[in-house]
Structures are given as C-alpha cells and as structure tokens.
Amino acid sequence: MAHDLSKRVALVTGASRGLGAAIARKLAGAGARVAVNYFGGREGATRVVEDIRRSGGEAEAFQADVRDERDIVRLVGEVRARFGPVEVLVLNATGPQPYVKLEELTWRHCLDQLEFFVKSPVLLAQAVVPEMKERRAGRIINIGSEVFEQGVPEFSNYVSAKGAQLGLTRSWAQELGPWGITVNLVAPGWIPVERHAGEGLTDAHKQSYASGNALRRMGTPDEIGDAVAFLASDAARFITGQKLSVNGGRTLA
Ligand SMILES: NC(=O)c1ccc[n+]([C@@H]2O[C@H](COP(=O)([O-])OP(=O)(O)OC[C@H]3O[C@@H](n4cnc5c(N)ncnc54)[C@H](OP(=O)(O)O)[C@@H]3O)[C@@H](O)[C@H]2O)c1
Known about the structure:
The protein is an alpha/beta fold. It has eight helices and seven strands, in the order E-H-E-H-E-H-E-H-E-H-H-E-H-H-E. 45% of the residues lie in helices and 15% in strands. The protein is globular and about 45 Å long. Bound molecules: NADP nicotinamide-adenine-dinucleotide phosphate.
C-alpha cells in the first residue's frame, strides 16, 4: 500500500467510470471507505464497488446529481449514515465538454461547465466543511486540467471553468488552512478513458500528443489515482493551495 488512508471516509464525485473510478479504486486500495458517486451510470458504479469489495476494500455507490443542492444534502447525509462524516472530498465529476467557437458561444455553454467546476464544488464543500472544521482535519482535492495552462482554441467554456476551479482551490486553501483542512488540485493531461473510445481518436493522435510530453508517453487513470491518494494522505499534510500537474511534464507550471 503506497499511502495509508485506513478507514478514512472519501467521497469521489463522478466515480462510475473514467478517472473517478480509478481514483475510487486507488483510495480504497489505500484503505479508505469510499463513497462512489454516480449520476446515470448505476451499472458502472456497481462494478467499481464490486471490484473494490473483491479486493478487500470498502465502498458503496450513491446516486446524486452533484449540480443539485438538494441532491448534495441528501448525498452527504447518506454517506454520513453509511460511513461517517466525509474526510476526503474529491471533486471530479464532469458532464459533456463541447468545443464551441467564440462566435457561437452562449452563456449557457459557459454555465454548463461552471455548474460542474464551481457550483458543485461550492455546494459540496459547504456540505462537508463544517464537520471537517469540528475535527480540525480534512482534504479537498479538485480535479482540474492542464488546459488552463495551455489555453485551447474553441474550448473557452471548459478552460475558463477549470481556471475558476483553481481559483476556488487557492482561496479555500487560505480560508480553511487554520482548521487543518488542505485544498489542492490535480491537473491531468489527456488521459484516455471510456468516453474517448467513441470520439474517433487513433493511435496517431495519442502518439502525437505523447510526443509533446517530457516523458514521451500517455498517462493512465491509475497515475491520476496515485496523485490523489498522495494528496489525501498524511504524507501531503504540509501541502495546500497547490496545483499538481500529472501530465508527464507537458506543462511546467
Ligand atoms: N480524461 C481526461 O483526459 C481528463 C483530462 C484533464 C482533466 N480531466 C478531468 O477529470 C475529471 C474526470 O474526467 P473523465 O474524463 O474521467 O470524465 P468521464 O469519463 O466523462 O466521467 C464523468 C463522470 O462524471 C459523472 N457525472 C456526469 N454528470 C454528473 C452529475 N450531474 N452528477 C454526478 N456525476 C456526474 C459521470 O457519471 P455517470 O456515468 O453516472 O453519469 C461519470 O462518472 C473531470 O473533472 C475532467 O474535467 C479529464
């Protein structure tokens, strides 16, 4: 076990597939009791929970729309009833991420992203921070993206919302530090997950992307999970307000 999270209660949003599923598996592998949140993908969430249990870990699936205030109150209440107060909050969920030219960009396009990367983190943090403050301990880990360092054409809806998520990270780190709560952001590079399968992306796309990384290869969901497990662990107790790029050295900030 790389990091010891024994019995810590972790809530991972959007953990039915993709990076969230890998993060949930890693945290459980480190001993955490993991709440696997899903929206429509009950089967995927059930698979993640069963995998974790088969490996000797503890997990439970919880349906909730993490953009909805009432769902969030219910979700955090259900997790508390099953495992206890949330000690590690991983803000990972995402919806569709359309590319939109500036001329066609609407406020709705922007709001769609802000609902995942500002509204949902704010509501979830508000739901768990009071108990973290009482215990004078807690970990909040945002899943951002390297795109904020790069800027990506026709993607300003997503890129700007990811920038806002980094802003939340830095402000909350300052605000919550006195209570022993750390807030950090993991910024993945492009990590192929299930949803990319239908997007016509070829090995040539991957090779081309990988050739721009210092390490000259694609990353894996497991490698994002490892970074999150590190930030959730005691080994990262003096780290807060940081962006950790997990992208093979593609960006150097
Ligand atoms: N993969 C990459 O290359 C990459 C790169 C940089 C950053 N990221 C970031 O990493 C995070 C995960 O991305 P991903 O690629 O793993 O995404 P993904 O495979 O599309 O998975 C998205 C997850 O979010 C859940 N979700 C969608 N709408 C939801 C809602 N309203 N409430 C709760 N959960 C909801 C989905 O649940 P259901 O299936 O149950 O609907 C699913 O589990 C995102 O923040 C993304 O921006 C990813």
